[in-house]
Amino acid sequence: MPGPAADVSAEPLVARDLRKVYTTRGSPSVEALSGVSLEVRSRERVALLGRNGAGKTTFLKIASTLLRPTSGTIEIFGHDADRNPDRARPLIAVVPQEGKPFFHLTPREQIYTYLRTRGLSREVAQTRTATALDQMGLVEVQDRLAITLSGGQRQRTMVATVIATHAPLLFLDEPTIGMDPFARRAVWAALRELTRLGSTMLLTTHYLDEADALSDRLYIVERGRVLMEGTAEELKRSVGGTLKVTIAGQTQHVDLFRSFGTVMTDGTSLTVIVQPDSLGELMAIAVRERLTTTVGPVTLEEAFMRAVGRSINEDE
Ligand SMILES: Nc1ncnc2c1ncn2[C@@H]1O[C@H](COP(=O)(O)OP(=O)(O)OP(=O)(O)O)[C@@H](O)[C@H]1O
Ligand SMILES: [Mg+2]
Q1: Nearest protein Cα to ligand 1, atom 17
Q2: Ligand positioned closest to the Cα atom of 221
Q3: Phi/psi of residue 293, each to 5°?
Q4: CB proximity list for 22: less than 8 A, separation 6 or greater
Q5: Which residue among 47, 109, 144, 263 is least enclosed by CB atoms within 10 Å?
Q6: Cβ proximity of 254 and 263 under 8 Å
Q7: What is the second-level CATH architecture of the domain 13-235?
Q8: Buried b (16+ CB within 10 A) or exposed e, 210-242
Q9: Which pLDDT tens digit goes with each residue over 146-181?
Q10: Which ligand lies nearest to the CA atom of residue 26 in the structure?
Q11: Sign of CA dihedral 74, 78, 83, 85
Q12: Is the CB of 52 under 6 A from ligand 1?
């Protein structure tokens, strides 16, 4: 059965200049979003990356109609999420950050009941429940009360519930937090399958390998603003090289390698970002100085650290 009708001519999500100021009596106000504009196109998987407190959850809460923006607009398949939340809600499903399944329900009951409240027939709800339990490796625990499940099993139940909806637009706030490497990959496979069936998704994650494996496009958010947008490959290219050379136990050699490209240090080792054609020269110096080096491809982690690190330095 197809999901609720989505106006296919409208973009799944368009946010324009979204601002959110939290005001709590007795506390200073917090500007969590300072004018965010972004789009998610049909059948895309888009990741929002950013440090703790950057504004990712605030954005997802506004997009999923749980919170009202201070100003700006956000449209879900052409429906204004703030003015017409009832039109937007049937088209979305959400894995909230730190969400928990109902403790007095089993995974099977939780998923089935949720699908029934979304208006799916008994037959469809039953089939989808069984499939989602299987996809998320929950068959063994499907009839146990959620209160008896491990943390990772509870998180799998949350994801299974949302996957089973086949909603046209999914919001997933750190969906794989606390999951083992097998479970994370099961989530990736299930989300890719949903894309194939026609769903669109916006997710957040602090696992940059996950963002790389899963998303077609990424936005890096910093202090309530979009800092960068692009594919993982584009963001990696922005680092200025395709290889990273890690030099163990050396932080005093920064000057020796600065001419090769960006040099980063984490206090115990040096990382130099280089183009392949200057690798030979760099390695010759490393051998001469008897330094232990490892060479690998640049990852999204370097792109993220560099983009956000620069922004922090500029503000200081
Ligand atoms: N209910 C609230 N009242 C006041 N301030 C809030 C509230 N919720 C979030 N904030 C603040 O808004 C900012 C953005 O928070 P948000 O939860 O959106 O960040 P995040 O990017 O999701 O971070 P994390 O990676 O830690 O989940 C932070 O400074 C946070 O302290
Ligand atoms: Mg968050």
Answers
A1: 57
A2: 1
A3: -125, 150
A4: 29, 30, 32, 58
A5: 144
A6: yes
A7: 3-Layer(aba) Sandwich (3.40)
A8: bbbebbebbbbbbbbbbbbbeebeebbeebebe
A9: 999 999 999 999 999 999 999 999 999 999 999 999
A10: 1
A11: negative
A12: yes
